[in-house]
Amino acid sequence: MWMQDKPLLQEELGRTISQLIHAFQTTEAQHLFLQTFWQTMNREWMGIDRLRLDKFYMLMRMVLHESLKALKTRGWDERQSEQLLELLMTEILHPDSQAPSGVKSHFIEIFLEELTKVGAHELTADQNLRLIGPFCTVAARTQDSLVLHTVTRGIFEAIVEQAPLAIEDLMNELEEEEEEDGDTPSREPPEGCPVAGPATPLPPPGTSGPAIDA
Predict the structure, then answer these.
(1) Cβ contacts of 167-174, under 8 Å, gap ≥ 24
(2) In the predicted model, what is the mean pLDDT of residues 87-112?
(3) Domain coordinates in residue numbering, the chain
(4) What is the pTM of this model?
């Protein structure tokens, strides 16, 4: 990867390296592969010159993507999800990790994008919360202002920006279900779903509004 300077061959080589994770038959072996990869990136990062950075950014993205695909093949198992997240947090975002700022920032920036590509159509709300939960913990505890800023921008702000699309998708799904049941489609939100706009009454002073799930 270090010597390859042709973009198309870099992509092919990146896919070959990242897909090696699927050659291992056990979760333990896969995690050892990932741990070794991220430790290698951390150790060698400061020696990568500016002209080579982009292909290693691409390689990190591909490895993360395949890591999530491996998790998907196991049905997003809760225990294995926790093990993968613990490995990633330990090697990249833990205060005692050896990860340089460039590795930390890039990992945070691409995590939600790759998770969306792999699991957007099947992950439940609880599973999504479990997968982004470690970033909440990092944001709450970190003393690194760069990490806090990157988590805020790359995770929390990205979720807020996507919220209107998520609500629209929910309404479309409800309409499809109503059509399948033979009911007349309705654009009215489901009971308990908050609606933004002037018609939405504000709660009286001293009281709390409706609870909104994350």
Answers:
(1) 167/193
(2) 94
(3) 7-171
(4) 0.76
